[in-house]
Amino acid sequence: MVAYGMVGASISAVTFVGVPGMVLTEQMTYLQTCLGFILGYVAVAFVLMPLYYRSGQASIYALLEDRLDSGARRAASAVFLVAKMGSAAVRFYVAVLIVHQLLPQRLGLPFAATALCMALSIWLYTRRGGIHTLVRTDVVLTTCMLLALVLIIYRVTRALDLTLCQAAAAVSHSPLSRVFVFDDWLSPQCFVKQFLSGIFIVVVMTGLDQDMMQKNLTCRSLRQAQLDLCSYGLAFVPVNALFLALGVLLTMLAARWGMPLPARGDELLPLFAATGRLGTAVLWLFAVGVVSASMSSADSALTALTTTYCVDLRQRPDDVRLRRRAHLTLTLLFAAVVTAVEALRSPSVVSTIYTLVGYAYGPLLGLFAYALLRPRHRSPRAPLAAYMFIAIAAPAACGLLTIAAQTLCHYRFGYELLLLNGTLTYAMLALLPARVGHGRSPRGSKG
Predict the structure, then answer these.
(1) What is the pLDDT of residues 141-174, one digit of tens each?
(2) Model confidence, pTM
(3) pLDDT tens for each residue of 185-205
(4) What is the Cα–Cα distance from 214 to 235, expressed in whole angstroms?
(5) Which residue among 59, 126, 198, 445 is buried most deeply as judged by most CB within 10 Å?
């Protein structure tokens, strides 16, 4: 149940809407990143997961306190709160936008009202049940999303007068079906860049993410959790291949009907589905798929944000009143951030998320790498402010390097920005003054 539900939690409305449109600019090269995801999940299952189970903590960031000190744990928690709030809001925004266009906009309601109502609906069904409610509801939501995807593909092939086998052959012969790029090392779609980035994207967005790990830690044993991660990682490739194939089929349908392709890739699927061009059935299937995917992603994000705030930052895991207040406050803040995203629309929501991951999750990658790889005799001696400075300075340096590389060398960073950010964070942590001696700092130390 956890593995199946996590498919929907990771895919979200962004994948449902954005991935089919990626074929307009990147063909099917996104599958290179998805292949890297498989190795990433294996690494998380057999390297990080045993450490989390051994610690016996509800929060994965407790590992940083065991290995370093409480300052590192709190800094990682703060980074996660900012990064997860931003990435989850961008994902949820797509669903809110589509639902808003279906009914509230016609009634004259503002976008903020739709965002608030959808966020509060999540708060209602997660308020009492917590993570166990999410495991069950995500199974239902993932099923609705995948059924909607398959049925939309079927309706598109019918509109093209093709059988499913003929549609598969047409996709494979399309110039948009290119998957591998080996001949252009400067391209962001180069195989080596995307494959390696896929590995580390999974490490940070799943292995270092309280949201995803909290669900895996509900498994009864380490072996079950590892099986969960590996099976889920393998499922990611065929599911994304279906989304990309749908994008290719939609470009064929646009050519057949004499329709111009949209300037934004995120508008390709809505151009056909949300406008009713493929019939009312597809319109409602599209709405069900997007809302199911977005709810599955957002509900787990809000639950994980509440856990991190109460357990890691405030360190009051048994305070029920604090947990309920934090849950409601984070829900309202989440709705506000979704509304802010509306004013900052990007040509590709998928690319926006991975750019955000590169900047925001890089410090988490560096912190965990340093905690696991540092020499045993070297324990940092630094206050919380030093960790927070590094967590801000590393992404800022990445931003400057990105501008300099594009200006001076005409080199454009892709998903490998995450690796650069993590490396800079690790290097800065290595410069912290060391506490001489063997062993780790005591649990609960103030750093």
Answers:
(1) 778 878 888 888 998 999 899 998 999 999 999 9
(2) 0.75
(3) 777 788 888 898 889 888 887
(4) 20
(5) 59
